[in-house]
Specification:
With 229 residues, the chain is mainly α. 36% of the residues lie in helices and 9% in strands.
């Protein structure tokens, strides 16, 4: 998402290659990457970064993981730690969330956001019914919606002295076994990762397709929250 290389070519990219975050920093902006997932895969190597996965915040971190809301904690302090001359030009904050990553969907939402029950509470998804699996995933979407709302509310507190904006994008889709039985879930994901684009750039195709797949689930979960069938 932050380079012009596709998945297959990214690991063999030139050592002196720079991506979007480097360009933003070269322009004089203050840039910070906040990660609550598996790392930035080299994207944030030359900008300020914060790893929230190992924090111990009561109510937000339990069982070796943190809920995504932890990334909003101490946001003012993290921004204040960036160089003042860069902050004067503008600040770019990238939040890399765990979001709705599986197979442990039930671990992606706190109890207060589990609107759909019963949910699958097993990493072996084939042991769960389809409704339980969908409930667990939809609960992660409910919590993601709360995270975005919290981020927007924080941005509104900055309007007196700044002109804040937010862009939210998905970096891949998620299969819940729609095309294959759930025992093949891991194989399905691995196969999708290895697939090569035949006619268009792999990154562009993946970006368009997976963003549509991910956000397709958002209106469905929102409709369920509103009581629609």
């Amino acid at each position: 998402m932050f380079s012009n290389f596709g998945r297959e070519a990214y690991d063999s990219r030139p050592a002196n290659y720079e991506g979007l975050l480097d360009v933003l920093q070269h322009s004089g902006l203050a840039v910070v990457w906040i990660d609550n997932q598996s790392g930035c895969k080299g994207v944030c190597d030359r900008v300020a970064s914060v790893d929230t996965t190992s924090l111990k915040v009561p109510g937000l971190c339990d069982g070796g993981e943190c809920f995504d809301e932890v990334m909003l904690q101490n946001m003012e302090e993290r921004i204040a730690a960036l160089p003042a001359e860069r902050r004067a030009r503008g600040v770019v904050v990238v939040m890399h969330q765990i979001g709705g990553h599986g197979p442990a969907y039930y671990q992606r939402s706190p109890p207060a956001f589990k609107k759909f029950l019963p949910e699958c509470i097993n990493n072996a998804l084939q042991s769960c019914g389809r409704d339980e699996l969908m409930n667990a995933y939809d609960n992660s979407v409910v919590y993601a919606d709360h995270l975005l709302g919290s981020a927007i509310r924080w941005l509104k507190t900055q309007e007196a002295h700044n002109s804040p904006a937010m862009l939210y994008v998905a970096d891949h889709g998620e299969s819940l076994g729609e095309k294959q039985p759930l025992p093949a879930w891991h194989a399905l994901r691995d196969g999708a990762r290895r697939a090569k684009a035949r006619t268009l750039d792999h990154l562009a195709v993946a970006g368009i397709r997976t963003a549509q797949q991910y956000h397709h689930g958002l209106p469905q979960a929102a409709a369920r929250c509103a009581g629609e069938p």
